[in-house]
Specification:
Blueprint: E1 2-6, H1 21-33, E2 38-39, E3 43-50, E4 53-60, H2 67-77, E5 85-91, E6 99-102, H3 111-120, E7 126-131, H4 140-144, H5 153-173, H6 175-182
Parallel strand pairs: 1-4, 1-5, 5-7
Antiparallel strand pairs: 2-3, 3-4, 6-7
């Protein structure tokens, strides 16, 4: 069984912000599969299947910096292995729209990933990082919560579709083959 987590912040205020790109990818996957979310106290979730593999799709409702508590909640209830966890999130250090898959590592300063590592007690899980770039004139906290500019939307939409394809490839072919294909 796999758990696919898109990171972001709940509510319409944050809907199309850079920090919510993980939500956009999970929304793309659930749209493809015709799934509908159910709400629990601290997350949205739905069950589906990719390539015959049971897959849970999740969006934490705890806000980015506390994502780990919601992930641990659903993780524990389903007796999942950390190797079968895929977390999709924004990355300031990648060019906008660029995708990078990693199988383990530090948080790289990303508070959502940091929270998940802390709550699960491991850094061994797959991450799909989607580049959002930086703006040297806007403080980081403001930049990640800003909406995409109109000119960026085609590139971001393409990245969302590609990241959703990467999730499917990870589950179908394994992380190593997906890394060779998408990195």
């Amino acid at each position: 069984m796999w758990l696919v987590v898109g990171l972001g912040n709940p509510g319409t205020r944050y809907a199309m912000t850079r920090h919510n790109i993980g939500f956009l990818v999970v929304d793309e996957l659930t749209r493809r599969l015709g799934l509908t979310f159910k709400e629990k106290t601290d997350y949205l979730h739905c069950n589906g299947s990719i390539n015959g593999e049971k897959t849970i799709f999740m969006e934490p409702l705890t806000f980015m910096n506390r994502s780990g508590s919601a992930v641990k909640n659903i993780f524990s209830k389903n007796n999942l292995l950390s190797e079968n966890l895929i977390v999709i999130h924004d990355d300031l250090d990648l060019d906008p729209g660029r995708i990078k898959i990693r199988k383990k590592g530090s948080s790289g300063g990303h508070k959502g990933i940091e929270s998940i590592i802390q709550h699960l007690g491991t850094n061994v899980f797959v991450r799909i990082k989607i580049g959002i770039g930086r703006d040297p004139f806007i403080p980081t906290e403001d930049y990640v919560l800003s909406r995409f500019r109109k000119a960026e939307l085609p590139e971001i939409k393409e990245a969302v579709v590609t990241a959703a394809d990467a999730v499917e490839a990870i589950i179908k072919e394994g992380p190593d083959k997906a890394m060779n294909r998408f990195n």
